[in-house]
Amino acid sequence: MINQPVPVKGGGVATAEQGTVMLDGPNGLAVTMTPDSAEATAASLVAAAREARRQTPPPG
Predict the structure, then answer these.
(1) Are 22 and 15 a contacting pair, CB within 8 Å?
(2) Pick from 49, 41, 47: which is nearest to 23 by CA?
(3) How many angstroms separate the first and last alpha carbons of the chain?
(4) Which residues does 26 contact at the CB level (< 8 Å), separation at least 6?
(5) d(Cα 36, Cα 55) in Å, to the nearest integer?
(6) What one-character DSSP code corresponds to residue 42?
(7) What are the Cα distances from residue 34, in Å, to 8, 30, 31, 42, 50?
(8) Count of alpha carbons within 13 Å of 50, Cβ hemisphere only?
(9) pLDDT in tens, 5-59
C-alpha cells in the first residue's frame, strides 16, 4: 500500500533579501529564488490552489 502525503495546513513565509526571495516553508523547506521565479511560483501556487478548491467537495 502506498502512503498518501498529508497536506500541511500552515503556509510558508517569503522574505526579500539582497535581491532574492527566500521562502521558508513547513517541515524545513527553504528555497531561494530570483524575483522572476518567485512571481512565477506564486502564480502557479494560486492557480493550483484554485483548482484544488474546485476538486474538494463541500463539507456536509
Answers:
(1) yes
(2) 41
(3) 29
(4) 8, 10, 12
(5) 29
(6) H
(7) 25, 14, 10, 12, 24
(8) 5
(9) 888 888 999 999 999 999 999 889 999 999 999 999 999 999 999 999 999 877 7
Strands 20-24 and 30-33: antiparallel
Task: Give me the residue label for grid cell 501556487.
Answer: 45
Provide the whole-model pTM: 0.80
Pull the grid cell for residue 31: 528555497
d(Cα 24, Cα 16) in Å, to the nearest integer? 11
Residue 14 near residue 21, CB atoms below 8 Å: yes
> Hunting for cell 474538494 — which residue is that?
56
Question: How many CA atoms are closer than 13 Å to the CA of 19, on its beta-carbon side?
Answer: 0
Cell of 36: 522572476
Q: Give the whole-angstrom CA distance, residue 37 versus residue 20.
A: 10
